[in-house]
Amino acid sequence: MAKQFSWEQEYKRTWEDRNDRKVNEFNMETETFYSNNRKGIVRHLHVIVDVSEAIDKSDFLPTFRTNVARILEDFIPSFYNENPLSTLSFLSTRDVCVKYISSMDMDIHAFLGQTGSKWFSLLNGLEGSIEIMENTMHVKEILVIVASTSTRDPHGYTEVLNRLKTHNIKVHFISLCGEVTLYKSISKATGGRFYVPIDVGHLSMIMKELSHPTDFNGTTLSLVKIGFPLPTMESSVCACHLEVKSVGYECPVCKTMVCSLPISCPICNTQLVSTLNLSKSLRFIYPLKPFIERAEDACRICQNKGAYQCDLCKSTYCSYCNGFVHSTLSFCIYCELPHN
């Protein structure tokens, strides 16, 4: 095969191949950061996706669209695994048109469309999201995945920012195009987070971080009505898909049939969960207390130099295992054993 000309070769970002970047990636993977704060386990995460012309840019090969679709396909099951009592919904925006869809009916490729068109309107997306979320009792968050460096809006952001603060809605941004002052200032004003991924791997790490429950921000929440539906084997029309299902769950409040759990009942808005969903969320309600800093013995797990000790069972952990136990397990391994 003939040698390709330089303009025929694949575009490469040579400035990203520096050794210090590899060191930083290693540190990001090995260092574990955790918070001992109480988490908001009943979340409503609303994802706004920019489907304007900018989504077909090829900064992340082959295009932003391809990578966003793949990331969202992995994110949905990961989110429900970490947040079994939460709600996930999506909204795509271009020009003045917005398209809302719940994750139960989610077809990523149909949702994103075949080609991007027109321009991005952040204001319309935020206003549509507030209307969806303002009456819920969840911990409310909006995630904006944007590929545009500009937005066309009918008016300013003062009113929408006030509404976001009134309803305690955090706005997170993933700016695929680079840092934009408007996006960063909105996330800062609402207590959200702002990200600029450097590559697809970094984008995956960001989405994984966002799948974890966020720290409880002190918002005063009302009691949330939770129902434990019983399974039913009678054929009936499920309220979530309006299709005939042979197996489902019956809402204990309004007797409506739904086909999966967890879900908010479409008729009476009762949060329907199983006992398994509730038990999985227990670790976020009662987080593991920090271990005492003490470096006398070797780590009981990996035998490296110890740095922390459990106050109850006196087991010693190194820095890495301490981070793993707090951020991933959320319980001390040896406290759970019948005999230490």
UniProtKB/TrEMBL annotation:
GO terms for biological process: nucleotide-excision repair; regulation of transcription by RNA polymerase II. InterPro entries: C1-like_sf (IPR046349), Ssl1-like (IPR007198), vWFA_dom_sf (IPR036465), Znf_RING/FYVE/PHD (IPR013083). This is RNA polymerase II transcription initiation/nucleotide excision repair factor TFIIH subunit SSL1. SUPFAM superfamilies: Cysteine-rich domain (SSF57889), vWA-like (SSF53300). It comes from the Eukaryota. Residues 48-229 form the Ssl1-like domain. GO terms for cellular component: transcription factor TFIIH holo complex. Gene3D superfamilies: von Willebrand factor, type A domain (3.40.50.410), Zinc/RING finger domain, C3HC4 (zinc finger) (3.30.40.10). It comes from Encephalitozoon hellem (Microsporidian parasite). Pfam families: Ssl1 (PF04056).
